[in-house]
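Recall the central idea of this unit: under ordinary conditions, the amino acid sequence of a chain determines the structure it adopts. In this exercise we apply that idea directly, starting from the sequence alone.
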Amino acid sequence: MKNQTDIFVRPAQREDMPRLHAILLDTFESTWRPNITQSAAHAFLQDKRPEVYVRERGLLFWVAEVAGEIAGFVDWVDDFVHALHVHSAYARQGIGQQLMDHAEAQIARAGFASARLETDTFNHSSRAFYAARGYHEAGRYPDEEWHSGLTTILLIKPLS
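Accordingly, the structure predicted from this sequence is:
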């Protein structure tokens, strides 16, 4: 899909893998590292979680391309959006909107009545982004990924 802002959403390709890894590292540095313990950050990097995630699921991602550069991606399974990442150089340019528009349309097309995802309480920009898209809080629980005392929020949006 291409629109007036020249954002092209397409399936990820093998040659996108290094850029997808770089996007994950960029969002880790800007979003999570300031909010997790030093030991959690060290484990994340030592375990090479971005590389593993991209290797395992990267070809299932949908990417947003701007002027030939991968600016962000979205990953979902069934009705659950596992990841939406936009490189900080492309923040607030409508990339996340387009990726979520695509994911939500595909989730609805697959017959699901709603889309679900998680974010953390500290991530105010993410929470505002999803609230503006019609997501509402459906639960809170301890974050089990970062082991840093964070709280995860489950968000749900009815799809029509």
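Residues 4 and 64 are 14 Å apart (CA to CA).
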